[in-house]
Amino acid sequence: MDEKLFAGEQPVEEAVAVLQALADANRLRILDLLMQGDSCNCELKERLGLPPNLLSHHLKALRQAGLVRSRRDAVDGRWIYYVVSKETLGRWRDWFQEFLDPARVRERLVLCGPEGQQAAAGAAPRQTAAGTTPDVLRCGVKANETKEIAEEIE
User: Fold this and answer.
1) To the nearest whole percent, how much of the chain has pLDDT over 70?
2) Three-state SS across 39-90?
3) pTM higher than 0.70 for the full model?
4) Residue 97 sits in the same domain as residue 62
């Protein structure tokens, strides 16, 4: 399934993967340290006090989410360095900024339940804080159908 959260943006699965990667305190600490520049396992292990297997587990989750990349040392390929993916970080920062924008929140009068039935029966539509009339929906029914809804209720 490639469901989008809002038009033209990241699939739900990608957003979930990034949120899961960030939903762990150790991963946030790792990401914070990597924001200060490239680092190797030994430095991360020392600074975070994590056992090597747990550190590897968290780095793998951050890599799979695309937030962190790894590269091998040019002289001795046994050494692996980790770095934050600036491109991925920037893309998700922009996406979350847009997705969590309070301006996206809309007022809507839902005509389900007793309150909605009373409103559909002829009560004056309430106004939003901005002084506008909110969109009206009753379990998927548009505002222009509210007269028919009111007749159904009676």
Assistant:
1) 70
2) EEHHHHHHHHCCCHHHHHHHHHHHHHCCCEEEEECCCCCCCEEEEECHHHHH
3) no
4) yes
